[in-house]
Specification:
Blueprint (H helix, E strand, L loop, with lengths): L2 H30 L4 H4 L11 E12 L4 H16 L5 H4 E7 L4 E7 L3 H9 L3 E2 L2 E11 L2 H21 L1
Antiparallel strand pairs: 1-3, 1-5, 2-3, 4-5
């Protein structure tokens, strides 16, 4: 291989590493920040600390097939592996729905862990023998809205995959 091409590839790898490290540090710092004291003083506008949110996602399968149980195990295992949270994985992450034909699913997450969960799940690339890419689509506040959005994407991607 040409030396100029090798140097370009090395430079590209260095830029990707620095970018990944800076994003990780930024996420860590933003998770550690505490809300201002003025927000917590009013009992009238106080929200529950752990409200539920629902993330609609789509899985692009590169190789292999995945069923609901395998995907649930992969999500929880990868979530605990990436973030080091052992006791909180069952409470923080739950697979609600997954359509294997269209690849669209819904995950329930806790509002305090939204960014951590999206970061961890979107980095998942292998589940069992399958090679996958997980793409978060939408985060909603209610399950009804998440199911509505998932049905829209089921109709859109389910038909396209059947005709291909």
């Amino acid at each position: 291989m040409e030396t100029w091409l090798e140097s370009i590839l090395i430079l590209l790898a260095l830029v990707l590493s620095i970018t990944s490290a800076s994003i990780s540090i930024w996420l860590y710092i933003s998770m550690k920040r505490q809300p201002p004291a003025s927000m917590g003083s009013s009992a009238r506008y106080k929200r529950s600390r752990h409200s539920k949110r629902y993330m609609v996602f789509r899985i692009y399968r590169i190789k292999g097939e995945i069923n609901f149980e395998d995907l649930d195990k992969c999500f929880k295992y990868y979530f605990t592996e990436q973030l080091g949270i052992i006791e909180n994985a069952e409470k923080s992450l739950k697979l609600i729905r997954y359509n294997a034909q269209s690849g669209v699913g819904i995950v329930r997450i806790v509002s305090t862990d939204i960014y951590k969960t999206v970061f961890a799940i979107s980095r998942l690339r292998k589940c069992g023998d399958s090679v996958i890419i997980v793409m978060p689509i939408k985060i909603t506040g209610t399950l009804r809205r998440a199911i509505k959005r998932a049905h829209e994407y089921d109709d859109r991607y389910g038909v396209a995959q059947r005709s291909a």
